[in-house]
Amino acid sequence: MKKLLCLLLLLTLTGCQGDGHKHVYKEADYKNPATCTVCGQTTGERLLAYFESHGIEPAMKKLNQEYDYRTGLYDEDGIFHACKGTLTVLSDEVSDQNPFATALSTDGTYEIRTVEMKMVMADANSNDYGFDYHYLLTSYNDPDGLAASFHYSEEKGANTFSVLHDGRLWNDCRMLVTVTNDEWQQAEPFWQKTVTLRWQLAIPQGYDGLLVGLRSAEIKEGQALDYTDTPNFVLYRVGGNA
Fold this sequence. Notes:
The protein is mainly beta. It has two domains: 2-43, no CATH class; 50-237, no CATH class. It has four helices and 13 strands. It has helices at residues 2-14, 50-53, 124-129, 143-149, and strands spanning 25-26, 34-36, 42-43, 66-74, 80-95, 110-121, 133-139, 151-153, 158-165, 168-185, 192-204, 210-216, 233-237. The strands form three sheets. The chain has a seven-stranded antiparallel beta sheet with strand order 4-5-6-11-10-9-8. It has a three-stranded antiparallel beta sheet with strand order 1-2-3, with no helix packed on it. A three-stranded antiparallel beta sheet has the order 7-12-13. The termini are far apart.
């Protein structure tokens, strides 16, 4: 009886080795360690996301809540005139309409997410000098990896990029940004500029590592990006609204 119990215990501990198959592991990602596709056994640790490892949380956490945003404009003498305003995420929804020029890859299930944002500026500098702003798309998990894969595709009519999800790279992620409203309105004590932006994104179903938002026009091309520097960087985690 003791021998039988020992044999059962051994089979339990060794798992699928008792079935005689060889482990086939899919790559570790930011949610799971390397996992056998046959029996589910894991090995090692999950990858640590960049934002998590640096203790950074995206500023915009809730829908329909205003968050401070700072931008402005350089004049011809190179002097930056800062403006202070707000940025609000109006909606974050899954869409059944494909806005891109070509069909999405059938190598896995992609979903279309539409995120609507509203920027409002109404201060002295925005009225006197105007302002500029820059879209920002990055990864909660691996900003450098996303940036390295990011490029514009004439064929697809969109910016494309890759993300690591469910143990593999997804190479047909896409982004379109459209300005759906851009107008000045008279208000007191300053005129108010309202800009509404629509982000259309193709990402793996269930992926929650994408960040979208705006950065300040004061930060020049090629300058190191400090994601802790809010309100110069105002980001929202797609699919992460509370």
